Amino acid sequence: MNIAKSIIFSPCILTPSTSLNEAISLMTKAKGSSCQISYSENRIPASKNIGQISSCILIVENKKLVGIITERDLVKLTIQGKTLQNKTVGELMTSPVVSLLYDEFSDLYIAYSLMRRHRIRHLPILDIQGYPIGLVTLSSLRQILSPRYFFRFRQVDEVMTRHVIWDVPSTSVMEIAKKMVFNQVSCILLVEQKSDILTPLGIITEKDIVQFQALDINLKELTAEQLMSYPLFCLKPEDNLLQVYQKMEELRIRRLVITGKKGELLGIITETDLANLIDPIEMSGFLEILKYRVSQLEEEKAFLLQKQGIELNQAIAENQFELYYQPQFNLRTKKVFGAEALIRWNSPEKGRVSPAEFIPLAEKTGFIIPLGQWVLETACKQIKDWQKEGLLHLQISVNISSKQFHQPNLAEEILKILKKYEIPPQCLKLELTESVLVQDIDMTLEQFKMLKAAKIEVSIDDFGTGYASLAYLQHFDFNTLKIDCSFVKNIHKNSKNAAITNAVIRMAKQLNFQVIAEGVETKEESDFLYANGCELIQGYLISRPLSARDFSKFIAF
For residue 398, what are the contacts with CB-CB under 8 A and spacing of at least 6? Predict the structure, then answer.
């Protein structure tokens, strides 16, 4: 298969008589290929390199493509105030559909030109009989083009959209949906308005609305503040487009907000803006000129990182690292039930080094793998020591990096450590950030299956600060959501934080997740959380992180 056809992946296909409820449910699943109804002999297998969330569904009747349903179609349904009962996809689908025959898909230019000309994000690929055997999206095109070198020399302010559709957080979700449809945009920014300055606070996308439809939550009762993604990922006008591209790839998002020096809203840059800028022919010329020099710079960077990595290796060899434990408290039982293990580096030359300094370096050099192994081993050994002291039911949470999590043998290695120290899997919990969920989806799903089989629990850390959507939360089998401290601070008098946290707690209960709030510093914050259904907390109100010895004294006291 040539490089152009390698970006085709398996589409999500339904018949016109399928209920809209089922369609919405399928559009929030992690893999669109899970809903095939029939197969053509020439059907394209899903690309292993491209993890896609199904943002559209193709409608087939009599083995021919007759329509398409996108997130925008479902948002239009929302503002009509109609229920999903007895509605079928045939009543809502868009027809006819811009498509391309597989035999005519000889290179990227054909698909790219069609999508730019018709301003579409999804291009069905058909066999000669008109059956959809594959799908190309703007995201898959962007990944295969990988225009990194080209973007290095262009700035955000050259291509960003300055006319941004916005609203305030107190607006109802229904009004937000109406504004999306009327202005034909895929997102609305939520802002705070002071004098003539707009400060962006959050964002609502078409996907957000569709995902809440899937959860069967009444959108009329929600305000934008409860639904918006927050905090925003922002860039400056003078930043180069490579930063935009890399951030979109890292977070699996399609848009970034552009702000000024005072944090004021200046514009927005989307995946479509980047696509409209790319000329594949022009870009290929830049690649040949720049490739050699860029590879040289990468080699120099790798050499410098290797030198810094040697220092970290020496630190672990000389036992300069130490684990501290921050107690986790159950407000209902009034007991400590566990702790989060936090690494500290006591350097003889530099003194106490912040994790914010050495963890990113460990990630870049690959040292995070042996360091993570040391943390797991040390934490499990400490659990065993505490069990010998009579502390039998403590659960210790250990932070796992994305590189460590995506090791194929992670579950096997953890089980070996648990067996070595003779402790049950329930005594250990892995903490992941939201960003881990959107990296290499196939491997992530498989890793979750193996961890569940091993009875090892997983917690999503700093929930609400990343860009993992509800689609991911519904389909990854984890146990606990940790509400980030930024939402907990002054929650008893900050209506925005209160609304977001209450929405997370309600959602977690509906999806059968445990909830723990971190960063709790005052009794007022604690009382508010408990009154609103969050019984588990962690923060300075209970205790700062403690050495293993001091943690034992704390429990005894």
Answer: 341, 375, 376, 379, 428, 429, 430, 431
User: For the residues 144-151, what does the mean pLDDT come to?
Assistant: 59
Find, among 258, 265, 260, 261, the residue nearest to 233 by Cα.
Answer: 258
- How many residues are recorded in the chain? 557
Which of residues 77 and 216 earns the better pLDDT score?
77
Task: Tell me how far apart the alpha carbons of residues 312 and 345 are, in angstroms, rounded to a whole number.
Answer: 10
150-277 has the same fold as 5-71+78-145: yes
Confidence of residue 309 (pLDDT cuts 50, 70, 90): low
The CATH fold assigned to 319-556 is: TIM Barrel (3.20.20)
What is the three-state SS of 234-269? EECCCCEHHHHHHHHHHHCCCEEEEECCCCCEEEEE
Give the pLDDT confidence score for residue 241 in this predicted structure. Answer: 84
Would you say 110 and 125 are in contact if contact means Cβ atoms under 8 Å apart? no
Specify whether domain 150-277 bears CATH 3.10.580.10: yes
pLDDT band at 36 (very low <50, low <70, confident <90, very high): very low
Query: What is the value of pTM for the model shown?
Result: 0.53
List all residues 6 or more positions away from 484 whose beta carbon is below 8 Å from its beta carbon: 462, 463, 464, 465, 518, 519
Q: What is the DSSP string of 317-333?
A: HTT-EEEEEEEEEETTT
* 128 touches 101 (CB < 8 A): yes
Residues 6+ apart with CB under 8 A from 554: 327, 336, 543, 546
